[in-house]
Amino acid sequence: MITFHNDHLVSPIFCKLIYDTIPEKYNVPVIFVPHTKKLRIKGDTNGSQINLYLQTIFYYHYPGEFELWKCLLHVIYHEFGHIITYPEWKHLESAYDQSSNEYFEIERLANDWADFAIDRLAEFDKLLCQPHNLGNYFNGRIIQLKNKSRNYNHTWGWLVEEWRKYKCGGQISASNIASASRAFRYPKSNYDLGRIQIPDTRLITQLAVDLGYEYIDRAGRKHLYFAYGDVPEIKRRVAMYKAIHGPAKSEIDYKARLEAYSKAIRERTRKKAAEVGQILPEIIF
Ligand SMILES: [Zn+2]
């Protein structure tokens, strides 16, 4: 049986879920740590207990209640993954060092197990059993942030989106799904590029209307949100559409903008190098 310490800080649904999904053989105590000086570590284990650092999880993953929930699940399954995959890495234990190849292998095994557990959960419930109430700790932090952020427009936008998701029950927007695909990740340094629409966003809203959770705001506009478990199906539909019709116009526009941007950067670097009389190797370009 898993013993939870400080479990008043998180949702009871979270504890129940972990209790139900981890095999009894690997049950060890789980401790929720509210404040920590280890600000880079979200969780750790020594094999006989697991610590979850809630403060770090909140700072890395808010805004976004779904992001918080998914991170909580990933961290705890990752730590249990270390315990469950122990027979596979115990021969590497003596060489464990934060920057060694053995370290990356051990972490990969735990991450794989966590991904497997989350995928299995998504098959059972496509919303990953996310509760409306994430628990006392996160509620307190979110209220604190909301009170602070009333004067800052950029945070306010996030909170409006959170409210829409909360009301309609969805988790991810179409642009979230589109930007998560590695090929179209934003070059964040460029303001201009960030202003154009991410390719596939409109395509996703067109192709997956039946899967979406709809929120209608006071101006009558419709906003679509999706469940985490629907993402593979949405990606399949988009790939099918592209195979038949070719890439969308927004994708062609985006690629052209990206090319123009990298060309401008190249020119600028060449010009600067010429000014100081530096000879750049051709291989960089
Ligand atoms: Zn780890």
Write structural notes for this entry.
By secondary structure, the protein is of the alpha/beta class. The chain folds into 2 domains: 4-124, Zincin-like, CATH 3.30.2010; 170-275, no CATH class. It is built from 12 helices and 7 strands. Strands 1-2-4-3 form a 4-stranded mixed beta sheet. The chain has a 3-stranded antiparallel beta sheet with strand order 5-7-6. Helix 3 packs across helix 5 (101-124) and helix 8 crosses helix 10 (201-207). The longest helix has 27 residues, at 249-275. The structure holds zinc ion (ZN). Zinc ion is lined by residues 78, 82, 107, 110. Zinc ion (ZN) is lined by residues 78, 82, 107, 110.
What topology does this entry show?
Elements: E1 4-5, H1 12-21, E2 30-33, E3 43-45, E4 50-53, H2 54-61, H3 65-84, H4 86-89, H5 101-124, H6 136-148, H7 153-168, E5 172-173, H8 174-180, H9 191-195, H10 201-207, E6 213-216, E7 222-226, H11 231-245, H12 249-275
Parallel strand pairs: 1-2, 2-4
Antiparallel strand pairs: 3-4, 5-7, 6-7
Helix pairs in contact: 3-5, 8-10
The chain binds zinc ion (ZN).
Shape: globular
Low-confidence stretches: 182-193
Tally of distinct domains:
2
What about the largest sheet? 4 strands, mixed
Strand order within the widest beta sheet: 1-2-4-3
Measured between the Cα atoms of the first and last residue, the distance is: 59 Å
Question: What is the share of helical residues?
Answer: 40-55%
Determine and state the CATH class of the largest domain.
Answer: Alpha Beta
Overall SS class: alpha/beta
The topology string of helices and strands comes to EHEEEHHHHHHEHHHEEHH
Would you tell me which CATH topology of the largest domain applies? Zincin-like
User: Strand fraction band?
Assistant: 5-15%
